[in-house]
Structure formats: structure tokens, C-alpha cells
Design goal:
heterodimer; A: D-amino Acid Aminotransferase, Chain A, domain 1; Dna Ligase, domain 1; 2 domains; B: alpha+beta; four-stranded antiparallel sheet; about 20% strand; elongated
């Protein structure tokens, strides 16, 4: 297919490009001044708690170098915890601590790390090495999610997470992100994780994508990644549908994890969610966003917005149209 | 609505940019290429006078612009004289005076003649003043006869003048013409006489004197011709052929019946006019003319800056091209290097080192910097301290490389000092973070991509024509800005996305 024909075809399907996303959606419905609410994960967490959306429990925050000296004193009581930069992007700089080995900390990736190393890592975070603009940052330490066994067969290390795109209060597309050995346990597609599209009507996974290529099996566990039923999916949709209102951002990516005992927890929000989700779902995001605008679904109450999403964007709906 | 706003803004910027550009090309005459050469002529007249003792006055005609020739750099070298300028009929006289002159005195007058660039300014001829008739009563009668017979043999005013000139110049001149001419049958005399004949009959005419610029050398080819005011403009007639045409190379210096040099209180020993051809860049010429005409756009252009700033701006004005290229690469093609505009800045650095050597240096410094960065990683340093240490290392490395290249007599290496240190350091840092997070493949790919983009940028911004165009016509940056704004509202797919989302298109077909 020639490039022009390809472009035309993609447009027909309603695939959203980077320029279209930035100019037609992000710059229209995501006002700059609200970005800190999602860029700073601490602020997001506080907002979510106020809005009644579940997030992992906050153990400690570090704002100054001097405080880092007390890291061991404050954190030693937790067997497992996650350390992350409040302004980090793309999952960079996140450390998942799972237990101890002697005096050392054991990482989820099975590497060892001393408390000294951890403090250095925190210092780096404070000096802004992982933040978007390189500005001063702070460190968040929070509950380490005990991920639900349901994803065991399709996960290698790390925590699988669910990305939902919410537009004006309507969940429009979803994806289950599965860590691989290549992504070193991170659920980040840029780093080699697998993304599986989700049928919004049922919460069952569709086809999956790895680095822009369609895959059927998890490369490490060889288990089938399609047809996996995500538990608590309605609760996830409910959380996603509340995020736009909470942040005043009309177009956000909502990252959720499924905890064994606590159910779905909102991890973070993204004001510029990636477009690979379209490949995972084999569907165009642009078409769905237009459908939301066309039906003026934003004005509906939350429950009806979710019903709208299930009806319009479920796989059954796609087959009909 | 927002799109409309952008379109209007882009249209206005484009219109202003192109308008100014067109004005400067068509009216001011700034050349589109830097090295267009045009011809100019330097005319010098030298006058040697032996003084009688006592007051001496030597007068010459001041050169005036003529049709499409402009006069530049007029200079008078007459160290012994006082100089004044006074109008005289259609000319201006340059009066050189000395109260008490002795011996031989020399005066030189020198000026440059250039063709006007762009459209020749349409000079409305001043309303002609009827000049006095100096012929005797008998001569006037003869003049009327000649005029009447020419009138009978011609169809209009122009051909009548041609007939008169032919009568005056033909070898078998009628008796009455011979009487009028006397012994002096020079072209100057014939031109004057023809003017007189026409004036007796109520027409406005005068002799024109000048030089033929086509013949260069120490002895200029002096020319005389006739100028008649016909149908609201001055028509030139060649004395020799009688035709109403004068070669373009003839320069009209002064008008009337007087000679070029008049001496009062001394004896004219020698009068010499020389013509030299000078090849000059059109650019310089136009700028010089602009200065003379006091054109706002030339006086307040980048050309008016002092040399060092001018050279700086020659580069700065090309940056928008590089930046525009990056915008296209990013938003239309979908390629990205390390940092937003870093490749343009690297391209700037290449200017001092030249391309191949620049790429080599950049790679060496980047590779060494990465190694050091990797090593520093083990020392667990804080961000700013680590960056600082890397800058210091880069500086030392540059020093070593420069000394080495000096010892090896390898001069391009000496220009390394101009490499932007901080940019290099930030590049090292970015690439190493990328290396940590996305692996060596991605880091190296992006670094190489940046280098390639920088090289292409360099080739574009260092191209002489590009530099000339953007320095001479900075208003074109407005056009680039308009295009950039339009790209800013381009919501179509990037080229790279077509590849990325190809899978989606294939499924349903």
C-alpha cells in the first residue's frame, strides 16, 4: 500500500496520530496549569484519596537531602515497598523492594541493593534526574502491590498494570500491560513490556502487542495473552471515569494495578498517554473520541458514561458497525 | 476557529515577508546571489595648468547621473585649490580657485559610474529652459533655411533632426552649411550647431558631451551628441549617423556649448580623461547606492552592522532554516534526535571544524564522555556535581586534542575550542540516561540520528546561497515562521506513524 493510501486508510479507521492527539485533544482539553496534578504523583495520590479513588498506601515522602539519612529508620519496618520519584515519567527511576537478604535490600528484579545504594538513588531523585524538566523532585515511598494471581501465567517479575484512556469522563480504550524479562519487570511498553487490548464490555483481553508487533503469547511464560479475564474490571472503569473530573484534564491515561487483597488501585495518571494502545486494541482512538463528542456523552452521569463506553466500545459493538 | 486564526496569521506573515522580499529584489535591487558581478567604470580627468601668476580659476563639470548610470565615490584631488560648486545651466561647475598661483598645477577629478540595478528610476526630465541663440542675423537666416528644407524632406520631428544632422555631416555639404561650420568640423561643433539651428526655429535642443565607456584606457573616447526635447522627453541623436539612438555605453557628462575645462588666469597645458573598468559585486554596489539614496531598508539592514556582528548574524540568520528542518523532521516525518534543537547547535559547531572533522571530534568527545560518565556512575555522585565533573573532563579532553593536533600540524583540530561545551555535556548526559533506560541500541541510534540531522543542518546553513539569502532578506524568516505555524496545526499522521500503525490498516483489508 502506498503512503497516501495508508494514511487515508488509517484515517478511515480513526487511528489517532501524535500530531492529532497533541493539537486536537491534549491542547484543547488539557490545560497546562493542571499538569502538575498528574506530573506530581504525590498530588495525584492526595487528590484521588479526596475523591475516594483507591491508591496504594503512602509510607513516606522525602523532600530534602537531610531527610534521606532517616530512610532506613523509616522504611525498615516494611518488608516490601516501592520507591518512586514524584515527578518521574515513563516509569523511570522506580525501585520495587521485595524483602531483604542479610543487610541488603532485594529488588523485584532479584538484584541486590544496599541501603547506601538506595539513599544514593533517592538523592538522584531529589536532584531531579528522573523528572521531566530536571527540576527538583521529591521521593515517594508507598505500599508494594501484591498483584493478583490471575496474571501469574502472563507476567514475568514486576507488576502488570491496566491502562485506561478516559476522555471527558468516559473510558474509551484499555490495555493490560505485562512486564517481560526484556522490560526488567516494568510495565512500560517503551521498555519492552507487552500490551494487550481490553474489550471494554467484558474486561477480557484481546490481541497483544510487543514493540509495535502483534503477539499471542507472553515471550517468557509462553502463556496465551488473549482472552484473560480481568477481575474487578467494572471498578476500574469506575475509577477511570472519575479521573477527568478530579484533575480537570479532559484526556488522561489512568494506570491501575490489581492488588490481591485491596482490588484495583490507581497508581498514576498521564496527561499525554501513548498511542500504542491502538495497536493493542487494533482500533482507532480518534474514532472513539469523536463518538464521545458526537453523543455528548460527557454530560451523562458517571454510571451512564460507563454504560455508554461498554455499549459503544465493546468488541460486540465493533463487530456490529 | 483556532485554525482560521493560524491561517490568517500565517497569510499575513507570508504576505509581509514576501512583500518586503519582492520590494528589495525588484525596487532596491538587492541581488539574489552573493557573487553576481557587475561592471563599473572609473573615470578620471586630469587637468594640468600653468599659472600666469595671480588669481587662477579652473572650472570643470561635476558628473551627474545619466539615464541608467549612477555616479559614485566622486572625489577631487586638487591640493593647491579651494573648491566650490556652482550651478550653470543644466550642469554644475566645479570651481577650483587659487589666489596667487605659480608654476604648474595639477587637479584630478575621479568618479565611479555604475549601471542602476533593479528598475531604473524613471527620471522625469526637468521642464526645459529655452536657451539663448548666439548666432548672427545672417547665420539665423541660413539656419531657418536649413530647417525649412529639412522639414520638407522629413515626416516628423525626429526624422527632421536626422535630416539636419545628415546635412551638417555629409561630405558634400551645401555652401550655407559650410559657412556656418567654419573651419572647425568636430563633432562637438556640429552638435552645437545643430542645437543652434533647432533653437532658432523655436525647438529646445542642446549639445551633450561625454565619454564612451566601451573604450577603456588612458585616453578616453570622447563623444558629442545632440539632445532635443521632443514630445515631453529628451531624445538623443548621434551626430555621426543622425540616428535617434545612442549606445548604452555613452555617458552624458555635461551639456551645452562650453568645453569641459575652463581656465581663467592661466594656460591649459593638458586635459586627459581616462576610463578604467572595475568589476564589482552587485551586492556591494546596491548597498553603496542605497547609502547614497538614503534608503531606509539599506541603511537599517544587517549590512549596516560593524564587521564582527555582521559575520555573527550571517550565521544566526540561517538558524531558522535548521530549526524549521527540525520541526519538519519531528512533526511531519517523526524522526527525533537527542534534545529538541540540539542538532542545530551541533551544526553550528561544525561551522568551525568543518563537517568530517566535526563529526569525528563530536564522536570522540561523546564516546570518551560516555565512558567517564559510566565510570562516575559507580562513584554515586549527585546530578549537578556529576555534570560539572563531566564538563571539566570534556574541557580537558578538548585541550589535549587541540595540543595534539597542533603538534601534528593538523589545523582543523585547533578550532575544536569553539565546540559548545555545555551542549556536548548535556548530550553526554542525555545519551547515558537513555543508555541506562532504553539500552545501548536506542541510545546509539538516537545519538547517530542527532549527528546525521546535525550534518544535514550544517550542509544547509553553511551553503553560501542560503546564507546570502537570509542575511540579505531576513524578512523571509517571517515566511518560515508562517510555515512553522502551519505545521504547528498539522494534525495528520507523521511518516513514522504510517509505519508504526501499518498493522492496523492491514487487518481490515
Amino acid at each position: 500500500m502506498n503512503l497516501l493510501g495508508l494514511s487515508h486508510r488509517l484515517h478511515e479507521i480513526g487511528v489517532l496520530g501524535m500530531n492529532g492527539r497533541n493539537a486536537d485533544y491534549i491542547s484543547q482539553v488539557n490545560a497546562r496549569r493542571f499538569y502538575p496534578l498528574v506530573d506530581d504523583k504525590l498530588l495525584t495520590k492526595q487528590l484521588a484519596n479526596k475523591a475516594g479513588l483507591a491508591t496504594p498506601e503512602l509510607y513516606a515522602t522525602f523532600n530534602y537531602s537531610a531527610e534521606i539519612k532517616r530512610a532506613r529508620e523509616l522504611l525498615d519496618k516494611y518488608e516490601n515497598f516501592v520507591v518512586k520519584p514524584a515527578n518521574g515519567s515513563r516509569g523511570n527511576g522506580i525501585l520495587v523492594i521485595k524483602g531483604r537478604l542479610g543487610d541488603n535490600l532485594r529488588l523485584a528484579s532479584r538484584r541486590m541493593m544496599s541501603w547506601y545504594d538506595l539513599r544514593f538513588h533517592m538523592q538522584n531523585m531529589l536532584s531531579g534526574i528522573y523528572s521531566l524538566g530536571g527540576q527538583d523532585d521529591h521521593v515517594i515511598v508507598e505500599y508494594c502491590v501484591e498483584f493478583d494471581r490471575v496474571f501469574d501465567s502472563v507476567t514475568f517479575l514486576g507488576v502488570p498494570d491496566i491502562r485506561l484512556i478516559a476522555y471527558k469522563g468516559v473510558p474509551v480504550m484499555g490495555m493490560l500491560r505485562l512486564p517481560t524479562s526484556e522490560s526488567e519487570g516494568k510495565a512500560n511498553l517503551h521498555q519492552g513490556a507487552i500490551g494487550a487490548g481490553i474489550d471494554l464490555a467484558t474486561g477480557r483481553t484481546l490481541t497483544a502487542v510487543s514493540r509495535n508487533k502483534v503477539v499471542r503469547q507472553h515471550p517468557d511464560t509462553l502463556a496465551d495473552v488473549t482472552g484473560v479475564q480481568i477481575p474487578w474490571f467494572d471498578r476500574m472503569l469506575d475509577i477511570a471515569a472519575g479521573c477527568n473530573e478530579m484533575t480537570n484534564l479532559g484526556y488522561v491515561g489512568v494506570d491501575l494495578v490489581l492488588d490481591r487483597s485491596k482490588g484495583p488501585l490507581m497508581l498514576e495518571l498521564n496527561a499525554r498517554p501513548g498511542l500504542n494502545i491502538q495497536i493493542a486494541n487494533r482500533a482507532g482512538l480518534g474514532a472513539r473520541l469523536e463518538a464521545v463528542d458526537g453523543a455528548n456523552a460527557a454530560s451523562l452521569p458517571r454510571a451512564e458514561r460507563i454504560a455508554f463506553a461498554k455499549e459503544k466500545f465493546g468488541v460486540g459493538a465493533a463487530a456490529e458497525s | 476557529m483556532r485554525n482560521l486564526h493560524v491561517y490568517i496569521l500565517a497569510a499575513v506573515l507570508t504576505a509581509v515577508g514576501l512583500g518586503l522580499f519582492a520590494y528589495k529584489v525588484l525596487v532596491v535591487g538587492l541581488p539574489l546571489q552573493a557573487r553576481v558581478v557587475s561592471t563599473a567604470w572609473e573615470v578620471e580627468s586630469e587637468v594640468r595648468v600653468t599659472a600666469n601668476g595671480g588669481p587662477l580659476k579652473v572650472s570643470l563639470y561635476v558628473p551627474e547621473a545619466s539615464r541608467d548610470l549612477n555616479v559614485l565615490n566622486e572625489r577631487v584631488a586638487a591640493p593647491d585649490f579651494g573648491i566650490t560648486i556652482a550651478p550653470e545651466g543644466p550642469n554644475r561647475r566645479l570651481n577650483l580657485t587659487v589666489r596667487d598661483a605659480k608654476g604648474v598645477l595639477v587637479a584630478r577629478q575621479r568618479f565611479l559610474l555604475q549601471r542602476s540595478t533593479g528598475r531604473p528610476a524613471e527620471q522625469k526630465p526637468a521642464p526645459p529652459v529655452a536657451q539663448p541663440v548666439t548666432l548672427s542675423a545672417t547665420a539665423q537666416t541660413i539656419a531657418r533655411n536649413i530647417y525649412a528644407s529639412a522639414h520638407a524632406k522629413s515626416s516628423d520631428e525626429v526624422s527632421q533632426v536626422s535630416v539636419i544632422l545628415r546635412d551638417l555631416t555629409s561630405p558634400d555639404r551645401p555652401e550655407n552649411v559650410r559657412f556656418l561650420l567654419g573651419d572647425n568640423r568636430s563633432q562637438a561643433k556640429i552638435a552645437s550647431l545643430a542645437a543652434q539651428i533647432l533653437r532658432v526655429n523655436g525647438q529646445i535642443a542642446r549639445a551633450v558631451h561625454g565619454v564612451d565607456l566601451a573604450k577603456t584606457g588612458l585616453k578616453a573616447d570622447e563623444k558629442d551628441w545632440l539632445e532635443v526635447y521632443i514630445k515631453d522627453h529628451w531624445q538623443w541623436f548621434s551626430v555621426a549617423t543622425g540616428q535617434p539612438r545612442i549606445p548604452r555605453t555613452w555617458y552624458a557628462w555635461w551639456r551645452g556649448d562650453e568645453p569641459l575645462v575652463k581656465v581663467d588666469g592661466g594656460k591649459l597645458d593638458r586635459r586627459r580623461i581616462s576610463v578604467t573598468r572595475v568589476d564589482q559585486s552587485v551586492l556591494r554596489q546596491t548597498l553603496a547606492l542605497g547609502k547614497i539614496k538614503n534608503l531606509f531598508l539599506t541603511t537599517y539592514s544587517l549590512y549596516s552592522l560593524p564587521a564582527p556582528q555582521r559575520e555573527g548574524f550571517r550565521i544566526i540568520m540561517t538558524l531558522p532554516i535548521g530549526i524549521f528542518m527540525l520541526v519538519v523532521l519531528r512533526n511531519v516525518i517523526g524522526l527525533r534526535g537527542v534534545g529538541t534543537f540540539m542538532p542545530v547547535l551541533i551544526a553550528l559547531a561544525f561551522r568551525d571544524t568543518h563537517l568530517v572533522w566535526g563529526v569525528v571530534l563530536f564522536s570522540v568527545v561523546l564516546a570518551a564522555g560516555l565512558l567517564v560518565r559510566l565510570y562516575f556512575d559507580h562513584l554515586k555522585l549527585l546530578l549537578v556535581a556529576r555534570l560539572g565533573a563531566i564538563v571539566m573532563f570534556v574541557i580537558l579532553l578538548m585541550g589535549v586534542l587541540t595540543v595534539l593536533s597542533d603538534k601534528l600540524n593538523f589545523t582543523p583540530g585547533l578550532s575544536i575550542a569553539l565546540f559548545p561545551l555545555v551542549i556536548l555535556t548535556m548530550t553526554i548526559e542525555r545519551v547515558s540516561v537513555l543508555w541506562d533506560e532504553s539500552g545501548p541500541a536506542v541510545a546509539i541510534r538516537q545519538a547517530v540520528m542527532s549527528l546525521v540531522i546535525a550534518a544535514v543542518c550544517y550542509l544547509v546553513i553553511s551553503a553560501q546561497p542560503v546564507q546570502h539569502i537570509f542575511f540579505s532578506f531576513p524578512e523571509l524568516i517571517l515566511v518560515l515562521m508562517a510555515l512553522t505555524l502551519l505545521i504547528g496545526r498539522y494534525t495528520g499522521y507523521r511518516l513514522s506513524e504510517l509505519v508504526r500503525f501499518r498493522v492496523l490498516a492491514e487487518r481490515q483489508t
